[in-house]
Amino acid sequence: MVKNIGLFWLKDDFRLKKNSALTEATQKHNQVVVFYLYKKKKFENQESQKWWVGKSLEEFKKQLHTYNINLEIVKVDSYKSFFERLFKRKNFSIYWNKTYEPDYLKFDKYLSENFKSNGIKFNIMKGNLLNEINEVKKGDGTPFKVFTPYWRTAEKFYIEKIPQQEKKISKCKKRTSFFENTMHEKEIYPKKKWFKKFEKYWEPSEEKALKELKNFIKERIENYSEARNFPNLIGTSKLSPYIKHGQIHVETIWQECAKIKKKNINKYLTEIGWREFNHSLINFFPHMIKGNYSKKFDKFPWEKNHKFLTAWKKGLTGFPIVDAGMRELYFTGWMHNRVRMIVGSFLVKHLLINWIEGEKHFKNCLLDYSKANNVSGWQWVAGSGADAAPYFRIFNPILQGEKFDKEGEYVKKWVKELKNVPKKFIHKPWELKDEKILKLGSDYPSPIVIHEKARIKALEAFKKI
Ligand SMILES: Cc1cc2nc3c(=O)[nH]c(=O)nc-3n(C[C@H](O)[C@H](O)[C@H](O)COP(=O)(O)OP(=O)(O)OC[C@H]3O[C@@H](n4cnc5c(N)ncnc54)[C@H](O)[C@@H]3O)c2cc1C
Questions:
Q1: According to the model, what pLDDT value does residue 163 have?
Q2: Sheet arrangement for strand 70-76
Q3: Lowest CB count within 10 Å: 93, 258, 333, 426, which one?
Q4: For residue 338, how many C-alpha atoms fall within 13 Å in the half-sphere facing its CB?
Q5: What is the model's pLDDT at position 261?
Q6: So what's the pLDDT on residue 164?
Q7: Which is the closest atom of ligand 1 to the Cα of 336?
Q8: Which residues contact 330 (CB under 8 A, 6 or more apart)?
Q9: What structural domains and CATH numbers belong to the chain?
């Protein structure tokens, strides 16, 4: 045991299981303090995240207390100024897990140099991915740009080095404090009370994440390949916010899946693979975080249309499946993957609005917002990404609705104005023409664009690049 205090820098790692850096700290030190840096600017335009993070801090604090560990939240203007002050204190060693985003990995280098030159012991450990970013490359050492060969390599690589034994977190001798001017997690919650609705749908804790995984494996994984496409069903795992905030490690998901012999497990793990791939992409091609991966899209003739953008955000486009998705997002902080593709395609192709606007709105609303998955998801939809859907493949929101929400159950759940509309018209209520059931234009908007015309316009715009 080392005599000084062990510090653990908590970021997106709200878990005790498979938390390498926290485990290491508790095994080396009798006293450990966990600290979270709250940088207000980081959460600007990420309202939903504030709710999940606030809740997670509240819950994790309780969990850590049972191990005699304090969790302290420190308000900072910049990480750099905080650490500059920390370098001057010598009575600690520090541990943290990697966050696989270019800024964080670059900052890790800065911290390593400075902790080293100040004689402070530190340890940076593997974060929430199956493989380290640099481990998975093509034979010639260059990064993959296409998912299928990436995953073939990445999957094999991970299988070969699955950790056999898991180290467990140890109980500390007694609780101690380290930082001054700490803040309460309640200060983090968004000012708007709209987030209260989330409490009906989510419970941000490690315990809940593990329970959800077990239920999913027991009850739903077998039908995942088919059911995952239908937004009226709970066909997917709904683990994304827990994965994003590290309430569960993807290795745990892998290992729990590997224990059972059910078909369709591979399909599920392939989706986890997409997350790995997206992290690889943003780190090897960081320019795609702020703009198009494919440079030819820099010349795309996007249109600025505030009215259309607002209608899209509010779920008032007049296209039921699009509006249902946008309202699901608003009320629950989550949206079904199939519908994310539909609403995304509608924004960039029917409305010709730059995907960056959609990315920004999702960032503000999604509880699972992840830099890697969101920019890659949007660029996949827009056609500007690495392994993307071609721009000319334009989702027809009416047919998508009729195919994946045949009975209109999903639409009726979120767009209450349409609850009496017969099945035949649920995805094209403008054809109903029965004012006793629906007054188009007052009960529910007329479609803001005509599908066929919008499609032709989008294809013409695409020809320009
Ligand atoms: C425009 C757009 C934006 C998106 N933004 C995000 C985002 O900010 N954060 C996010 O986690 N996912 C994002 N996705 C991917 C996907 O929609 C969600 O991961 C998925 O809907 C989460 O639900 P689930 O946990 O039930 O998924 P499941 O189907 O149960 O999949 C399990 C896990 O695999 C990962 N995963 C699943 N599908 C994908 C995918 N297509 N790409 C990458 N990883 C995937 C997620 O971590 C997910 O939790 C986006 C997709 C699109 C089209």
A1: 80
A2: 122-125, 92-97, 5-10, 32-39, 70-76, 182-183
A3: 258
A4: 24
A5: 78
A6: 76
A7: 21
A8: 194, 315, 365
A9: 5-127 (3.40.50.620), 128-165+206-284 (1.25.40.80), 295-463 (1.10.579.10)
